[in-house]
Amino acid sequence: MDDIIFGKNAITEALISGEREINKILISKNIHSDAKINKIKELAKERGIVFQFVAKEKFQQYAEFNHQGIIAQISPLKYADLDEFLEKSHNNSSLVILDGIEDPHNFGAIIRSCVCAGVEGIIIPSRRNVQVNSIVEKTSAGAINHIPIIKVNSLVNAVQKLKEHDWWIIATDASAKDNYYDIKYNDMNFALVMGAEHAGVSKSLLKMSDFTVKIPMMNDFNSLNVSNAACVIIFESLRQKLDKKS
User: Fold this and answer.
1) Which of 28, 89, 138, 229 could form a disulfide with 69 if both were Cys (CB 3.0 to 4.6 A apart)?
2) Contacts with 96 (C-beta within 8 Å, 6 or more apart), sequence order
3) How high is the pLDDT of residue 139?
4) Which pLDDT score is estimated for 1?
5) HEC readout, the chain
6) Which domains can be identified in the chain, with CATH numbers?
């Protein structure tokens, strides 16, 4: 499952970006051609990528996913290197660090929000965090092809390196004193740390953080999932950036 992407939008974006090596595209004989399918075939022809129509039985192993009758066999994602990222970074850059995210749908949604808000990269640990797979790719709607995903062995070491390069670390914590909109995001390079769905940000990363912030809730009803929470905060940073330009 890790070497395919599925769905019309995700495959179209992968073809347009050219960031992923696509080996073959399989299209179910049972689906009718539409504008999106025709676009995929057109792009595949331009890039010399083989596509073929196959029996619907070929898709049975993907029945639990909304594959829309089309899958692409791809090369594994090439993760970015943190050192190379830091060499290319500029003033007022931003990162999101994912600390133990388990749900691939949340990961995909975070990628999509990051790309839309102009976040420059996402850092994930090599263990105890969902890795990039076909569900993440599909949920991101192709956004994964437009942002570096940086995989590191140790988040603690990665955060330490960021701090040595004058990055500020902002961690989310439900018991924080500051609200997320109290931070002046435009005055620094910052990395936003989002914690696991149930455990939150690890204590070691909380101790290393320069700021901890929360999203205020009504009636003590704290049920905002991690992808929603990340979206709220990174779009606040974008709002501040746009306000500064106006």
Assistant:
1) 28
2) 110, 114, 119, 121, 122, 123, 191, 192, 194, 230, 234
3) 86
4) 42
5) CCCEEECHHHHHHHHHHCCCCEEEEEEECCCCCCHHHHHHHHHHHHCCCEEEEECHHHHHHHCCCCCCCEEEEECCCCCECHHHHHHHCCCCCEEEEEECCCCHHHHHHHHHHHHHHCCCEEEEECCCCCCCCHHHHHHCCCHHHHCCEEEECCHHHHHHHHHHCCEEEEEECCCCCEEHHHCCHHHCEEEEEEEECCCECCHHHHHHCCEEEECCCHHHCCCCCHHHHHHHHHHHHHHHHHHHHC
6) 4-74 (3.30.1330.30), 82-245 (3.40.1280.10)
Percent of the chain at pLDDT exceeding 90:
48
pLDDT tens readout for residues 128-138? 888 888 788 87
